[in-house]
Write a structure and sequence with these properties.
The protein is built from eleven helices and no strands. The protein is an all-alpha fold. InterPro entries: DNA_glycosylase, Endonuclease-III-like_CS2, Endonuclease3_FeS-loop_motif, Endouclease-III_FeS-bd_BS, HhH-GPD_domain, HhH_base_excis_C, HhH_motif, Nth.
Length: 209
Amino acid sequence: MDQPNARTAEIITILAQTYPKAGCELNFSNPYQLLIATILSAQCTDIKVNAVTKSLFADYPSAQEIIKLSQTELENIIRPLGLFHNKARNILSTSQILLDRYQGEVPSDMASLVSLPGVGRKTANVILSNAFNFPALAVDTHVFRVSRRLDLTRGKTPHQVELDLTAQIPRDLWSKTHHLLIWHGRRICKAQKPACPSCPLLDLCPSAQ
């Protein structure tokens, strides 16, 4: 990776010009709702999650409300999103822990977040970045794929990719870069049949087809 910082800066600049409205595409009104939506988004699109949470959050907007549901009732609501058994169990367990330990509020530190059922480092970074405006760079499947194709990293795990990216990107751009890479991955640099000929990064990408 020749002069990674300068090259990375150019990539971020081009992506920012291409996607000026890049941001979180999950709908939420507070940190708790973002936490639940992010748990639901595992192996599922944000569009599908938003379709389900629109009614879920209208009827059950907080941890206090959601724990009134039985696991079967919650499973029936979120069934279209897949993995509904594990997701329902984790949501109910996490909601109860938030009530027992944090007065129903979502904690704003990595250690506390990853201790919650169904919350890994990626989800925690999403919460820290989008709910609390802390510098964080969550590595999901899109960030992992796009950053490796661009040779911004050769990390083989999401955590290693996160470390590589944050080492060469200014701290105040971590959250923005996360969204830019996701938007690019969803729209151009798709897992199957990436649209390389129309990619604004074509001349900078060693993986271009």
